[in-house]
Amino acid sequence: MSKIGKRPIKLVQDVKVAFNNRVLEVKGPKGELELQTHPDVDLVIDNETLSVIPSNEGSTKTALIGTTWKHINNMIHGVSQGFQKQLNLVGVGFRATLNQKELVLNLGYSHPIKYSLPDGISASVNANTKITLESSDKQLLGQVSAEIQKFRPPEPYKGKGVLFEGQKLKRKAGKSGKI
């Protein structure tokens, strides 16, 4: 069994947790999330803690304990504090603007790229080159930021593209040419 899965999860005061029909519902000030749990995993909810245990001791699915524990912990953190990712647009003429729930990206193509933000994601654009995405769902936030980065992935020769904040890009030397 997972080391991390053995520890109980502490519940925050503003967060309400309900477990019915293998579906865990977590509600908090930043929103509400649901998780469909595996049949080999059971949840025990006490006053201030939540424990993840295997449904039968001889189960071969004990690897799911740590994964389920981390998903639940991320849900509780998300509905109480939220998650945030920042993307930087690096390149000449690369800009972003926000129109309601639509992100318009100019990434060096002949046309602007329009990306509709899904429900549960909020965005803000600072200085036309910094995009800040916020959500209570960590998985959805990572998926959306990866989809935006896929429009112009970072390239190692000139260092241009859509980069995550703090991402180190290993630069390569160009062609040396003939003598």
Automatic annotation (TrEMBL):
Domain Large ribosomal subunit protein uL6 alpha-beta: 14-82, 90-163
One Pfam family from the record: Ribosomal_L6
Residues annotated as transmembrane: none
BP-aspect Gene Ontology terms: cytoplasmic translation
Protein keywords: Ribonucleoprotein, Ribosomal protein
PANTHER family, A to Z: 60S/50S RIBOSOMAL PROTEIN L6/L9, LARGE RIBOSOMAL SUBUNIT PROTEIN UL6M
Protein family (similarity comment): Belongs to the universal ribosomal protein uL6 family.
Protein name as it appears in the record: Large ribosomal subunit protein uL6 alpha-beta domain-containing protein
Source organism: marine metagenome
